[in-house]
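Q: Give me the 3D complex with WT7.
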Amino acid sequence: MANIIEKPETITPRPNLPDYDETYRTFEWKNAYDQVAWDDRGRLNAAESAVDRHARSPLKHKVALYWQGADRNEEYTFLELSNLSNRFANVLTSAGIKKRDRVFIFLPRIPELYVSFLGIIKTGAIAGTMFSAFGPDGLYDRLHDSGARCLITNSSLKKRVNEIKGDLPDLEQIIVVDETDVAEGEISYPEAMKKASDTFDVAMMSPNDPAFMLYTSGTTGKPKGVVHRHLAIVQQHMTTEWVLDLHDNDIYWCTADPGWITGITYGILGPFSCGASVVVHDGRFDPDAWYSVIEQYRVTVWYSAPTAFRMLAQAKDAHKNHDLSSLRHICSVGEPLNAEIVHWGMRAFKLPIHDNFWQTETGGILIANYPSMPVKPGWMGKPTPGITAAIIDDNGIEVRRGVEGNLALKPDFPSLMLEIWKNPRKHAEYFMGDWYLTGDRAVQHEDGYYLFIGRSDDVINTSGERVGPFEVESVLIEHPAIAEAGVIGKPDALRGEIIKAFVVLGDDYEPSDDLESDVRRFVKARLAGHAYPREFEIVDALPKTRSGKIVRRMLRAKELGLPIGDVSTLE
Ligand code: WT7
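A: Here is the predicted complex, encoded as structure tokens.
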């Protein structure tokens, strides 16, 4: 651990920004409540604070959303976005959607996704998002567990929904965004929107009422539904302003899809709340296309992920073919940001990439290389104002600086999840004494900066996306030839980790190339692309505890040639 304690090199911050130490020392959440919009009965609505209040302000004709699609581009002002989401809220209300009903979105990054997300929240219903790469199994888990009453999708994604619709008794309505001639029991978005009024009486909610939810992976069990409350907008607003340094004269690009929390908090709610113009690029990763987005929209603030920056760094001189001079601030989240990538960023963009840390469950940034602090390449940064972080041992006792332990937080910040949907036991597992546990291991340096060490469980982080080994194993064993499966994350220079599957074949099956390609096809059809194991290995047996649990750490140790550790509880 000696290398961690050394004084690392830092990159000096820009001058004239709010002082970190002073803000951290004096800040209290209640002093930030007036940054969002409340009624005189102490109620708020996250969508109202994000968009509607700007539609009533001098910003109303400012572009809120610049959308770049494959063959056309569109722009929506704050007023237009407010009116369209009002219309959609009316569509839902006419369809019988009430407060707390779950309404899910299964769409690519098209304007209707943003309109419907805001519209759902305005009705007081709970908006759920799903990444458009999900296959039928991923969809079923989410729609079934949440008991979603309504789903918004398009004609091509609808085919995957149709495969499972019969097993979803709660799913009463499907709204199709690109069809006027819809099937029985479906609603045509274009038709319904045309008829709906663009005024809507936004449901003002209690701070702790749920606003949106999304599913994330743990070590065991199916993905769990993380529910966030309307009050989270306070922290989403403040961290967008402080950490992303976003203001109402910025053009901002967040590369994350709203199927993940980053695409919601810092792709929709936070940036709109700060009055910034948000750029949405509905396309796949490609260095030239990405740099063209920055160039074309004159993007000033850019939020992306280490895996994307690593792929851009591999594209060598691609940045030199574009005018990227509009950029003034760059941030990164999702997995450890390698120091060499920060240095590459300095060369390519003349700007440091600011790493920050948070989780689906925390709804907003917790630890960051704050814009006014020196950037310490390789380190996550310091707790943002209003956040108390600590490193604790397995008994919940704080350890000395420089010692590795569990990264924990005081659970007293507005964007911490409200609950795990219908699963209070899972929710309780996150807490120990006065602390919320992140499930991550970290070290705090003498100077206060935190360094990420790794997960304390088997959760895999591939290209910044969280994958539970259990979900992948469950799909693998659905294949008739596979008797058992154990799945691990294997370190990878580009993706952080890749997924490797160890499988045991059933008695009647022999390993062959045909079998392997059949398994690959099978898994690919059922799991979202990122959850697909890039490596397979057929083994005779899996290491297990006496109680029959697969010991993934042994699979990992074997794979990496590491010491196997304590085996006293093994079979
Ligand atoms: C997990 C949360 C909300 C951000 C997107 C991911 C890892 C996140 C960092 C970072 C090292 C990081 C942690 C965390 N992680 N940011 N800056 N450095 N690791 O959200 O899918 O809920 O994943 O991602 O392991 O617990 P998520």
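A quick observation: The chain has two domains: 18-388, 460-560.
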